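Quick one: structure for this chain?
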Amino acid sequence: MQAQAVMLKVSEIFETLQGEGVSVGAPAIFVRLAQCNLHCVWCDTKYTWDFSRYRYDEEVREQSALEVAQIVNASGTRRLVLTGGEPLLQQRALEALFSRLAPDIAFEVETNGTIAPEPAALARVNQWNVSAKLSSAGDPEHLRIRPQILTQFRDSGRAFLKLVVHGEDDYAEADALVRLLSWPRERVLLMPLANDREMLRERSSSVAEAARTRGFRFSSRLHLELWGGRRGT
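Got it. Here's what it folds into:
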């Protein structure tokens, strides 16, 4: 597959610090792809997929895999975070990107865990940040939870299950999902549902305690704390 001929639907590309998960605080270049197969009510990147509210021609640009790879390879960081939207909707095109990335770049993918990764992705991606959605996200269970696919991520040995939670109902649902998947507790993270600094600060202590008592990890949202979740941060 020629990278020059393969186009990606891109929302934005920017350098920042990883704001969530086990790599929090690490310098990274983010490639945010457009389109998603879920419709989370609390999503903070609706501009990548909700084109009833945002204009597609203003929010999405097509860039070749070669062009994106050149931007990533020339960046000042050696960590790429591929996010969205749901990036694995474009994974056939991503094969061309993988082939052009410098071998010293650590590669993370943020995914909702509903689309099975192709062999090329499993071979190249260093870390999967799998944000399976609980019922509070608003989509029906059969759309947001695909146990066979989640198990495939689990078995890669390079995947972390990152669950957005707020309150006892979410904690109970998270517990049930971890049991269903037999997901190793040291690779589960609970993260507060929040869309601004104040909400993050208000909810973090209770989520952190819920994570501690379960043997899970806690993830804050550094981009909210530092920059208020402004786009491009």
